[in-house]
Design brief:
With 351 residues, the protein is α+β, with helices and mostly antiparallel strands. Helices cover 39% and strands 12% of the residues. The protein has 12 helices and 10 strands. Helix 7 crosses helix 10. The chain is globular. The chain starts with a helix and ends with a helix.
C-alpha cells in the first residue's frame, strides 16, 4: 500500500514561519463566526502544497482555516478569495462542500488574507486504491467520485452568481499560456526537454469546442471527504485551481489517475485494477459520458497530454519554491521530484 496516508494525512504543530497572532484571529472569529467560543488551539494540516491550512480547535468544535502563504507570492496565485467565493456559491446550490463561515481580506489580522470554513468529519483517501475498502465495496467509491464531478459540470454557474468567476471559452488555450508563462518564468527550477516540446505542440493541436462549466481543476480522491461509513462524497476540498472552463479537460485530469504512477498523487497505474475490482479506465469514461449525455470523448488523449503538462508545470513551481526555501509543505521536495516524470508522461500521451 502507498504511504501517502501516513505522510500527508492529519495535523502537526504549526511549522516555523507559518505562525500568526492567535489573539487577533480569535477576536476576528468572535465577530464573524456564528456561535464561536474560544479559546483557540491551532494545528497545521500536513497536506497541501500551496495555501497553508490549519485546524482551529475550540472546546466546543473545530474549524478549518486556509490562508495565503506568508512572504512574496506570484501575482494572481494563492487566491483564497476565489476559493471562498466558489465554496459559498456551491454550498448554496446544495453541492457537497464545507460550510463557509467567513472571508477576511484585512492583512492586519494574521498577516495575509484567509477564510474559515466548517471542519467536515469523514474519511480522506490519499491512496487511489482505497485501502481498507472491501473488494466488493470499492466500485461504489469510484462511482461516487464520477457522479460528483458530473454533477459539478452540470451546475448552471450563472444561476448561482458565478457568471464572472472566469472567462467563457478558450479555456485550454488560456491555460497553456498561463502554465507556459509560469514554467518559463521560474528559472530556479530549471528546464525540461519534454516540457519544451509540449509548449510548441499543445497550442497547435487544441481540439474544437467551447463548452464552459465550473471546473474544479484538481479533482482527486484526496481532495474529497467521504462519509464515515458510506461510499458518498460529503465535501469536495481545495478549490484553488477552480474557474470556468472545459469540463472534458477537468474530467481528464481526474481520470489520468489511471495513467499516473502509483505513489504519485493518488495514481493507480501499475496496480492490478481487476484484482482490486476497480472499474477500468474505459468503463469510467463511459460512466461520466452517460451521466453528462455524451457519446464518448473524441480527443481524450489530447486532454490527458494537456493535463499531465499542466500538473508538471504546477510541480515545477513547487520545485522552484523548494529551491527558494518558500515551499508551504514539509513534503514539497518529495512532490517536486515527480516533475520530470510527469513531463515525460505528458509527451508520451502525444506520441
Amino acid at each position: 500500500m502507498s504511504d501517502e496516508q501516513d505522510t500527508f494525512a492529519g495535523t502537526m504543530p504549526v511549522r516555523e514561519g507559518y505562525g500568526f497572532d492567535t489573539v487577533r484571529l480569535e477576536r476576528w472569529m468572535a465577530e464573524h463566526v456564528e456561535s464561536f467560543s474560544g479559546p483557540l488551539t491551532i494545528e497545521q494540516f500536513k497536506g497541501g502544497q500551496s495555501n497553508p491550512t490549519y485546524k482551529l480547535l475550540t472546546p466546543r468544535c473545530a474549524y478549518v482555516m486556509r490562508r495565503k502563504p506568508p512572504g512574496a507570492i506570484l501575482k494572481g496565485a494563492h487566491a483564497v478569495e476565489r476559493e471562498a467565493k466558489v465554496i459559498a456559491a456551491l454550498g448554496q446550490a446544495g453541492f457537497p462542500v464545507a460550510h463557509m463561515y467567513g472571508l477576511c481580506v484585512d492583512e492586519e489580522v494574521i498577516g495575509t488574507s484567509f477564510y474559515v470554513m466548517e471542519m467536515v468529519e469523514g474519511r480522506i483517501f490519499w491512496d487511489g486504491t482505497f485501502p481498507g475498502i472491501s473488494r466488493e465495496g470499492r466500485p461504489a467509491y469510484f462511482d461516487a467520485m464520477n457522479a460528483t464531478l458530473a454533477r459539478l459540470h452540470q451546475i448552471d454557474y450563472r444561476s448561482i452568481g458565478l457568471a464572472e468567476y472566469g472567462k467563457s471559452g478558450d479555456y485550454i488555450s488560456r491555460q497553456i499560456g498561463l502554465w507556459t508563462k509560469q514554467y518559463l518564468g521560474d528559472e530556479d527550477a530549471g528546464r525540461d526537454p519534454n516540457m519544451d516540446r509540449l509548449i510548441d505542440w499543445l497550442p497547435a493541436h487544441i481540439p474544437p469546442g467551447n463548452e464552459t462549466t465550473i471546473v474544479h481543476g484538481d479533482f482527486r480522491c484526496d481532495n474529497m471527504i467521504f462519509h464515515p461509513t458510506e461510499p458518498r462524497v460529503i465535501a469536495v476540498l481545495d478549490w484553488e485551481l477552480s474557474t470556468l472552463g472545459d469540463p472534458l479537460a477537468d474530467f481528464a485530469y481526474h481520470a489520468m489517475m489511471y495513467r499516473m504512477p502509483y505513489n504519485v498523487l493518488a495514481g493507480i497505474s501499475g496496480v492490478e485494477v481487476e484484482s482490486l475490482n476497480i472499474p477500468s479506465e474505459s468503463d469510467y469514461v463511459r460512466a461520466y459520458c452517460r451521466r453528462t449525455g455524451r457519446d464518448g470523448i473524441a480527443n481524450y488523449a489530447y486532454y490527458l497530454a494537456f493535463n499531465f503538462f499542466r500538473l508538471a508545470a504546477i510541480l515545477h513551481g513547487i520545485k522552484g519554491r523548494v529551491v527558494r526555501g518558500t515551499a508551504v509543505s514539509a513534503h514539497a521536495s518529495r512532490r517536486s521530484e515527480s516533475f520530470p516524470q510527469l513531463a515525460k508522461l505528458a509527451w508520451q500521451q502525444v506520441r
